[in-house]
Design a protein that fits this description.
Elements lengths: L1 H14 L4 H6 L2 H11 L2 H20 L3 H37 L5 H30 L4 H27 L2
Helix pairs in contact: 1-4, 4-7, 5-6
Length: 168
């Protein structure tokens, strides 16, 4: 858990340009680009999401026993998770290729998007199965905190989209 939190914290620091040694080593254009990204609705959403995720991890208070049980659940689904992730990558590439083709072929784009949608559905089913099993490990309070986190994430996305729509 500490390793995961450290990685997220470091990513957050780099994203906001708060790592002075790294910033000094970068060319000014890279530092300026990072600062510009952070000052966008998407950048604010990403930084806020990292903060909310760290807060959630802290508030959940997962015990060592719960952590081991959840690791077992994830390990049991890992082969399917890898399979679905590989399919998502394949379909994402196919969709990207269709979008970037020299000649616009709306049917090909829609077909690739539909296939990608099917793969997203597969991923959602795996996620639902994982969460269903994890429910048996987590307390009602922990499940409530996860649901509250999801609600906050959705509100953050809505806020980001409103900010993007308001920009000229």
């Amino acid at each position: 858990m500490l390793k995961w939190m450290t990685v997220i914290g470091l990513l957050g620091l780099v994203a906001i340009g708060a790592a002075p040694e790294r910033a000094a080593a970068q060319s000014p254009s890279v530092v300026e680009a990072c600062a510009q990204i952070v000052d966008t609705p998407l950048g604010k959403h990403v930084i806020g999401s990292i903060g909310r995720l760290l807060l959630l991890r802290s508030e959940l208070g997962v015990t060592a026993e719960q952590r081991e049980q959840i690791r077992g659940i994830v390990a049991g689904h890992r082969p399917k998770m890898v399979e679905v992730a590989q399919g998502m990558l394949k379909q994402w590439r196919a969709l990207g290729d269709a979008v970037l083709a020299e000649k616009i072929d709306e049917k090909a784009i829609r077909a690739a998007a539909a296939e990608f949608g099917e793969t997203l559905g597969d991923a959602a089913v795996v996620r639902a199965k994982l969460f269903r099993e994890a429910r048996g490990v987590l307390s009602n309070e922990q499940i409530g905190a996860v649901k509250e986190f999801r609600t906050e994430q959705l509100k953050s996305v809505e806020t980001m989209l409103k900010e993007v729509a308001a920009r000229k």
